[in-house]
Structures are given as structure tokens and as C-alpha cells.
Amino acid sequence: MDSAAHLILTILIFGWDPYAIMGCLLPDTLYWVAFIRTKGKGYRGSSIFSWGERLHSLFILPLLGLLLYLISYNSSFLIFTEAVFLHLITDLITHRTEGPRFFWPILDEYYPRGLVDWCKPAVIISYYLLLLTLAVFMRFFI
Length: 142
Ligand SMILES: [Zn+2]
Known about the structure:
By secondary structure, this protein is mainly α.
């Protein structure tokens, strides 16, 4: 899923909480670095991109967020962790043919496979229509 879609969903659920926004954007940051450094050419084959796939591990950012919470008892770190989980779960669902390495360092390959493929225009359009419906529903009924 693209970062804009992650950001919109996170804002709909958590509001403009800075820890939630940080948690939703952080897993994709190395993808942006790889894109900028390669000027968009072949960035998916770069080692930075591979580390971006590993940054989506269920054992990295969620555990870091929980550790920071246990050390500080600052509830903002729980919101950060929840936003990271939301990002990882939506990526888990929307990456069918290729995607992050969710179980790194135990398994250094793309696993498990998602339900739909984010690369397909029908999936992207459906998702954004779902977000729009959710936003309208939340605006007028909640
Ligand atoms: Zn991601």
C-alpha cells in the first residue's frame, strides 16, 4: 500500500496525533530513501529498499514501540505501536505477489502472501473509495 493511503487511514482512525503519524510513515521511510538515492531508477533492487522491506518486520518497530512504552510509561508510544501495527496489517493484506519481509530476522523473504495486490488499479481505486466512504460516514454519523 502506498504511504498516502496509510496516512489517510491513520488520520481517520487516530486523528492528527503526531505519534500515530510517525508510526504509520516510519515503516516506508527506507523506500523513500532508496527512491531518492537512485532517482527512481531500479530502486526496488537496491539494498536500501531491501532494508525497507525488513523494517516492516513484526519484530522491529512494534517491539521498539512497546519497549519505549515500558521504559517511559508514555501512552504516546502505545499509539505509535498501534499505528505501526495498522501499517503492517494493511501491508500484509495488500501485498500478494511481492512485499515486505514481515518475519525478518527469522525468515528473510516475503512471507506471508496478502489477499489482494496493491499494484492492480482496481484494488487501489476500491481502497480509496472505501476510505472516502469511511471518511464521509465518520464525518456525518460519528
Ligand atoms: Zn509499508
